[in-house]
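so i finally got all the pieces together for this one. its two components total, 717 residues if u count the protein bits. some of the lines might not be protein, just check the labels. i wanna see the whole assembly predicted at once instead of chain by chain like last time, that was a mess tbh
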Amino acid sequence: MMRFLRSAFVVGRRDFAATVLSKTFIFFLLAPLFPVAMGGLFGSIGARVAKQTERPVIAVVAPRNEFERLTQARDQMADALGDAALVKIVGFSPEANLAAQQKRLLASRSPPVRAVMSGGLDHPKLVGALSGDPATVGQLKLMIANARDGGASGMADLRVTEVRTSSGSVAADRATTAWIAQAGLFFLTLMLSTMVMSQLIEEKSNKVIEVIAAAMRIDAMFVGKLFAMLTASVFALVVWISAGALLLQMVKHGGVQSLPTPAVGWPGFLALAIIYFAMNYLLFGAAFLMIGAQASTAREVQTMSLPVTFGQMLIFAFAATAISAPDSAQGLAAAVFPLSSPMTMLARAAEDPEWWPQLAAIAWQALWVGLILRFGAQLFRRTVLKSGPRHSWWKFGKA
Amino acid sequence: MLRQASATPSPDIAVEAIDLVKDFGETRAVDGISLRVPTGAIYGLLGPNGAGKTTTLRMLLGIIDPSSGSRHVLGRDRPLDAAPEIGYLPEERGLYPAMHAREAIAFMGALRGLPLAEGRRRADALLAEHGLADWGKKSIRSLSKGMAQIVQLLGTIIHKPRLIVLDEPFAGLDAINQGRLEELIRREARSGVTVIFSTHVIAHAERLCEQVAIIAKGRVAFDGRVDEARERLRPIVRLRTRASDGAWRSAIPSSARREGDEWVFELPEGGPEPLLKALIDGGAGIETLAIERPGLHDAFVAIAGNKAAAQMAEEKVQ
């Protein structure tokens, strides 16, 4: 075992040094600018989609008959505009201590409430985190006017008291954090998996692999290569996170503290981000190394990796379905499926403060990483040094 | 003929292969190769391209596993267990182009368990010893093919192995570097290291090897001392006569062939004296008569066949 680890270390150290000390690593460090730009683009699309699909929830504290009139008014508007375009309203009976009730509702996670309306239809007041969302206020004014007298008296007055956060606004911010984290994980893994595969192809083409294979077990080489790139990328992650934090500190009022805090807190979230990145990379990196072992030219690699890349994108999309709905059937399935689990669980860490699902997921993913590394190393060994007549890669088992 | 693997490999035998077979799908690349390489010997694997030399070496080194058969290398059943004591120069040279020569040599030592710092120290010493101290800081991509090959060779011996395996080591080297490599092989052998090398250039094997295995079509056609291979053949007679025909013709074997204006044939059983007498009595009018000891090339032709020899000659020209 010691010799295996020592051999893996020799290969890993060489790969790490060759990666980090090369001039091209500077370009690699600049690489996140592209996914960040793309993430921003997709993020804005996603945010728009999220705003449409996850309509703000307004808690209405009013007697039952007034709430029913408001609901009827909303239904009429929904006939014209469609249900998806309107805010959601949930009724609550007034309690003796309105201030305490408002506070409790704004902190409620089920449903995540954006604002609380009280004062009845005659003197409506709105308390909540609604800055930058005039549409919600406008919709409520129309609903109130319709509920009063069918809109005959014109637009209703609605006094709005702004609070910094509500459970609804926090949920939306956390969903954004979850989405950005997931997208970052996906792009980073894709980039690194492709890099580790390119290195392998280079070694196959310049025949260094023959020298290495004569000196050590080929699975030690497999593990060494995989962990070298992991180490290099953790190094890059530290650079990126530090640079990002510094940039935020300089350009954003309030610096990093102004960022929406993930549900598990920043220290926990960053630790989980590194763990899930490692898991995700090891799962996908092993798959890409297996592909690299089959191919002997860059063109073959491109041909073979294209469907895998699309598959990876599908998995990313699958994991994204869990955002804002981690306990849905899809969300749970994405958390359990090993290849989508790291991305799904990182998103969950942004939205859900519970730690036990995270620890269970890490154990589950570690099991799969172990299995895939074992299978990958075996397949790698069978195929990477095969000489003589070429065989179809899917017949590796017969080699 | 099957040979049984010895339960405890003898220390006198550095490498033993027993009925090694390697199939690649439907193609049998190696078909039951058995050989024994004595410790401290320079052992040549001779054969044309595609004969199975490289596949045999790769199996002996544990790079690939045989389809059947077994091998013992430096007393171990699993060749990779002996990897720290083996140096290997593959046929297709493998070095990282961006690495400096010194680092490349040290890295090859590290692959065999030599600490990197010690590898660097030894690399400096080796480069200086070979008058190549200036190469240390040069990247591999800036070196010529021959220079890079020498660097890789130094990397092959950096960890002071007990067994050195060289696959077509002379390919691509100029005459000066070929001489340098031959000297290096002899020096290693003098210090007790076992050297196995494959080649399709018979002259190298003839100059260097004490023992050879002649491989053709995935089988060992001969395994033994170079002298034994030569002794399989009778001496060769080269005869030039003034008379083109006559009674003397009955004195030379019917298998004699013409090479230019010479007759070439194996010395008959009776030896040179009866032959000379018969030629003189038969009125041959001897102009020149030379009796030559057969070379390894002749032995190779006799053992592996004309076709294999012609293929090797063609590869040498290429």
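Chain A touches chain B through 27 residues (CB under 8 Å).
Confidence is low (pLDDT under 50) at residues 387-399 of chain A.
anyway lmk what u think
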